[in-house]
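To assess whether ligand presence alters the predicted conformation, the chain was also submitted together with heme C. Input:
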Amino acid sequence: MKIRIMLCALVGVLSAAPVAASIDIVKKARCVACHAVDKKMVGPSYREVAEKYKGQADAAALLALKVRRGGAGVWGAVPMAPNDASKISDENLKAAVEWILAGAPS
Ligand code: HEC
């Protein structure tokens, strides 16, 4: 009984707290197969992305949509494939994009 109450409290805390935006999210979602924090791979580095969209108010929404649907033509000829919800949840996607736009701090 006591354990059950503790579990409920824990679940409550976990779902209320924002996802800690960090490299862990993009590792888990396998974004790191194509992106690194500070060097270009298949896709642009996250620091480059942060630099490009600095000061652009709608960048977070724009980039979240792009990651979800995939797209091409901004950084070169190679397209990014769509990343559906089975790869990254809406919540984690939002957190990941915010983390990227903040310059991918470690
Ligand atoms: C298969 C390789 C691949 C994977 C996996 C991948 N990306 Fe990309 N990503 C790319 C490429 C290539 C581009 C450049 C597309 C372009 O030029 O428009 C890109 C571009 C981006 C951009 C910049 C978009 C823009 O329009 O400026 C962001 C942000 C991004 N990716 C985030 C992510 C995140 C987050 C994930 C994981 C959920 C992810 N990517 C997974 C290849 C990938």
